[in-house]
Each structure stands twice: as structure tokens, then as C-alpha cells.
Specification:
single chain, about 300 residues, alpha/beta, 8-stranded mixed β-sheet, globular
Length: about 300
């Protein structure tokens, strides 16, 4: 299948690698032309273009165009693609972390021009290349059918790790709640390891504890695997700042829980603790940063 990928950060580039490995032909575009050129040099079946007009011309309609850009630039990208010649019958996929309300609006606006839209909440971070991506897709049956070969290639297996979860907006809504849960899980680990680190009289080896918990315990998880790796590199996480960013999904989750009158005390407090990390130093913040760097390749602050 031929498609295009716009946005070649770590995750977007790895998605291209996985697609090409499964036989797809991908036309790539990024504002950093070197990123696109590097993929062409590395992979067969990848073509780089220098403009969105060139991208539109490179694909026969109906086109499948996958956006992997920060949510702040999605509307700008859609406008630019329409001006470049995207036409009725084409499919636009937003694989980033956009607000679900905006995804619903974008789908409705594009449908006026008969352009299909899928919001693909995508989880897997920098490890998705080998492990596959968990993809929560929202959109019409027709749009999902157009995209199915791509989703099956990106997922851990053709019938596992992805699903059509509902209409436009549902994909990003499910991903939003996923990230809210992620905040809570990470905060629990961070607080637990801060307790272990504070018990100085026992001189606990946090790497050893993490490795013990990796096998047979009820808290074993990929996040715990990442913690074991982080402690193996630096037992005190001495190079990390405890300042923890949030990328927006946690805030949207808490806001929607208020709108729904659904109590989410753990998720809400986990978000608040990220705000707290920006005030007073704490070991828990370092633990959170180690996990964020591990699963998503997120930019984190190093200790001054």
C-alpha cells in the first residue's frame, strides 16, 4: 500500500520503518529536510518530498496521509494540505495526541469536502518499532477499512493491539484516558521508590528491588522494566532533574471527568503532583522522568 507520513520525530520515523518492513511504500515529509533524507538513505520504498504540493502529486487518489505532528500544528497542517490539493475521497489520519473535541470538529469539517478522517490514538513510544504500536482508531467504517492494512502493520499483530473504538473523536478520547491512567501508574511507582530511597538505614538497592518485582509480582509491568534499566545506569538517578512536564492529555482527562461528574482522584492527584514537581526537588520526580524517557523518548530536564 502507498501512503505518506508527515512528521518524522522519533515515533514517526519508527512507524515508517515498521511500515516499510511490512511491504508498504511511504512518501515522507518533514520541515527538517535532513530527517526525510536520512530515511531515504536508510530504507528502500521510501521517497522524500520537499513540499506538501509535491507530496500530493506523488500519491494517486484516494490518498492516505498520516500526520505525526504536535497537536498545536494539526489545524495548520490540514489547511496546508487542502491548499496543496488534497481532494474528496482522500483520508487524513491524526496519529498524535490531539484533544478529542477538536478531532470531532475536524472530522465534521473535512467531511463537507468528502475528505475522510481518522483519529488514531497511538501508544508505544520509541519501542513501537520492535514491539508494535497500540492504536485506538476513531472514524467511519469506510475510513477504517481504507486504513486497515496500515493499522495491521503498525500493531503488534494483525488482530491484536489495535481496534476501531468508535466514531471520529473516540480514538483520541480513549488515548486520553489511557494517558490519564498512565499518569496514575507512574506516580504510584515514583512514590514507592521514593519511600525505598528515603529508608537510608536499610541501604536498599533500588535496581535489585525493581528486578525482583519484575518476576512474579502483581506490580510487574513495562514501566517497572524501565525503572530497572534506569537504576542500572544510575542508581541514584543523579543526572536527572525532578521537574516533570505534562503534555496535555492528563489535563484533558481531568477536565472531562469533571464534565462527566466521574470521580478520578488518583488521576487528578497524579497530574497535580507533576505541577508540584516544578516547585520543590523530590526523588519521585526523578523516577517519573526516568520512566518518561524510557517509554516515550520524551525530552526531560537534566540536573543543573
Amino acid at each position: 500500500m502507498k501512503l505518506s507520513m508527515i512528521g518524522l520525530g522519533k515515533m514517526g520515523a519508527n512507524m515508517v520503518r515498521r511500515l516499510v518492513r511490512d511491504g508498504h511504500e511511504v512518501t515522507v515529509y518533514d520541515i527538517d529536510a535532513d530527517s526525510a533524507t536520512a530515511l531515504v538513505d536508510e530504507l528502500d520504498n521510501v521517497t522524500a518530498v520537499s513540499s506538501l504540493e509535491e507530496l500530493i502529486k506523488a500519491l494517486m487518489p484516494p490518498r492516505v496521509i498520516w500526520l505525526m505532528v504536535p497537536h498545536q500544528f494539526v489545524d495548520q497542517s490540514i489547511e496546508a494540505l487542502i491548499n496543496a490539493g488534497m481532494t474528496g475521497g482522500d483520508l487524513l489520519v491524526d496519529g498524535g495526541n490531539s484533544n478529542f473535541n477538536l478531532s470531532k470538529k475536524r472530522a465534521a469539517d473535512l467531511l463537507i469536502s468528502n475528505i475522510h478522517f481518522v483519529d488514531a490514538g497511538t501508544s508505544g513510544g520509541v519501542w513501537g518499532l520492535e514491539n508494535g504500536y497500540s492504536i485506538m482508531a476513531g472514524g467511519s467504517e469506510h475510513a477504517i477499512a481504507m486504513l486497515r492494512p496500515v493499522l495491521e502493520s503498525l500493531a503488534p499483530a494483525k488482530d491484536k493491539g489495535w481496534g476501531h473504538v468508535g466514531p471520529a473523536g473516540a480514538g483520541h478520547y480513549v488515548k486520553m484516558v489511557h494517558n490519564g491512567i498512565e499518569y496514575g501508574m507512574m506516580q504510584s511507582f515514583a512514590e514507592g521508590f521514593e519511600m525505598l530511597e528515603a529508608k537510608q538505614e536499610m541501604d536498599l538497592d533500588l535496581q535489585q528491588v525493581a528486578e525482583i518485582w519484575q518476576h512474579g509480582s502483581v506490580v510487574r509491568s513495562w514501566l517497572l522494566d524501565l525503572m530497572a534499566e534506569a537504576f542500572a545506569d544510575d542508581k541514584k538517578l543523579s543526572t536527572l532533574s525532578d521537574y516533570v512536564d505534562d503534555s496535555g492529555e492528563g489535563r484533558w482527562t481531568v477536565q472531562d471527568s469533571i464534565d462527566l461528574a466521574v470521580p478520578t482522584p488518583v488521576l487528578t492527584l497524579a497530574l497535580q503532583m507533576r505541577f508540584r514537581s516544578r516547585q520543590d526537588p523530590a526523588f519521585a520526580g526523578k523516577v517519573l522522568n526516568a520512566m518518561r524517557a524510557g517509554f516515550g523518548g520524551h525530552s526531560i530536564r537534566k540536573k543543573d
